[in-house]
């Protein structure tokens, strides 16, 4: 039996991945989510085949207290059973950086990075010695992809948690919100690098993967954005958006992204030696080199240490 813990499995390509995992005959899936949506209930079998199981546990990624409670529930459910794969997939993008979590941190950074960092730290002792940890990132973290979104200026955890203290914060709310998103996705790659470092994970021999699903329209990612953007995002996720695939190699369907994420979690797809960044391009998984920022050891180490302080953990 393969035991998998997952966030971000209730909508979009994450729901597709959860569906694939739930119907695997040898998989037990523990799924963290704020609510049960009708779409989720219809896609993920409530009673999959007898050898598989799906257990939904409450998780609010805007609250570090909720992350602690979720991790405790996972530990109680599993007892001595180790976790074979941890999928940290949930994510948001906002039109600005004004929202704060109950802990006082900027919401995009808190949800996309800090909550997942804390969850990984809390569950690290309960991972199998050869577990896989997958963090969903985005190619927008790398300026070389040519994304129209504001690319990261830094991965300073303190400034991302408190953007009002960032002296270079873009005064345009939309661009500040874009930076919060792309910087949080840079944090995902840097965290994957840290999890690949035995200094942080000994005695585990983890496989850490930063997975970029590409541009997957029709997901719940855009639900905080303006109505025109939400409408365009939804429509481009229908067959109307398929022609984009001809001109944009980053475009992937929800089925392609979800199936690939599930295959990575189950070990059906594995990284080449010394690679941890996986990018889906026109339905094909590639393993690009890291961006200059993501390749800096000092940034990875600083993010690990500073995130621990924000989350109330020892280094």
From TrEMBL:
Keywords: Oxidoreductase. The keyword Oxidoreductase applies. It comes from the Bacteria. Pfam families: adh_short. The keyword Methyltransferase does not apply. Belongs to the short-chain dehydrogenases/reductases (SDR) family. This is SDR family NAD(P)-dependent oxidoreductase. The lineage of its organism: Bacteria, Bacillati, Actinomycetota, Actinomycetes, Mycobacteriales.
